[in-house]
Amino acid sequence: MKKYIFLLPLYNDWESLSMLLNKISDQMIYLKQNAEILVINDCSNVKAEKFGKYKNINKIQVLNLKKNLGSQKAISVGLNYLNKIHHKSIITVLDSDGEDDVHKIPIMIENAEKNDDKVIVSTRTTRQENLFFRLAYFMHKVLTLFFTLKWISYGNFSSFNSKQLKKILANNYSWLAISSCIAQNCNIIKIKAGRKKRLIGISKLSIMGLISHSLRVNAVFLYRAIILSTLYIFILLNLNFLTFQYLILFVIQILIFNFLLIITLLKNNQKEFYNFTDLINEIIEL
Question: Is 220 helix (H, G, I), strand (E, B) or coil?
């Protein structure tokens, strides 16, 4: 029997999660199905709530991690866990803060059922942050396109048949960034959706967090970035209209970016990806 599993990384957002589960339950009415929830508790320092009953949710399971990993690694642990238990299912990944548009859940799941060879992703048409942050995020997407030839305008929010877990987890890229891992490993279908406001509080993503995220997204494509960088440097060296000072400046910037990608790759300790069970403290049901 096919299951409908929702995987949600969480750090302290238990109150938001409670509200989000109500919304997920409401959306499952359209599909005439029940859901199971797998929360990846990223070593929260706020105690978990005891949730009530939800009409269209059969089970709420919490996988408690031993240490704080960050949302991308938490999702990777959750995907590895689901791959290990081998349930035939439609898996939907979304954040627990309510910023993903839950009204797109039915259409994403329906597409995942019709296209079991693809991952359905939610591309963001609008964002709720201030103008400066939106511009910074746009620059991140342009930079990623420049060094990877991929326009990655989506985040964690995705739906797919559990058959896709083997592709997603075929390497350790999910340990860096789920979005670029999917872009690298899978065929995708894009569903447009706006980014909503957090259910409670304000967005936790800072400019420094965005820079770190951008480096991890691009580090997935490190070898492609190095090849493209070599090509760009070769082209720059053969441009006659550039002064020597500008030429050196552009080359140094490209080399620094590649160096940062290598550091990012080394810093993220992909060995933990292959030993993910060592990071799980306990699995409980709420």
Answer: coil
State the Cα–Cα distance between residues 38 and 190, nearest whole angstrom. 24
Beta bridge partners of 190: 121
Residue 1's pLDDT band (boundaries 50, 70, 90)?
Answer: low
Confidence of residue 102 (pLDDT cuts 50, 70, 90): very high
Q: Are 202 and 103 in contact (CB under 8 A)?
A: no
Report if pTM > 0.90: yes
> At residue 91, does pLDDT exceed 80?
yes
Determine the straight-line distance between the first and last CA of the chain, rounded to whole angstroms. Answer: 23
- pLDDT score of 118: 97
pLDDT score of 128 more than 70: no
CB 54 within 8 A of CB 37: no
CA dihedral 38, 40, 46, 51 (to 10 degrees): 0
227 is a domain residue: no
A 10 A CB-CB count for 207 gives 11
User: Residue 280 belongs to what H/E stretch?
Assistant: strand 280-285
Residue 72 placed within a domain:
yes
Q: What is the pLDDT of residues 243-255, one digit of tens each?
A: 778 888 999 999 9
Q: Is 109 part of a structural domain of the chain?
A: yes
Domain that holds residue 12: 3-130+153-200+280-285
168 vs 185: CA distance, rounded Å: 6
Closest CA to 143 of 216, 218, 213, 219: 218
Residue 98 has pLDDT above 80, yes or no: yes
The half-sphere exposure of 184 on its side-chain side, counting CA atoms within 13 A, is 23
Domain contains 181 = yes
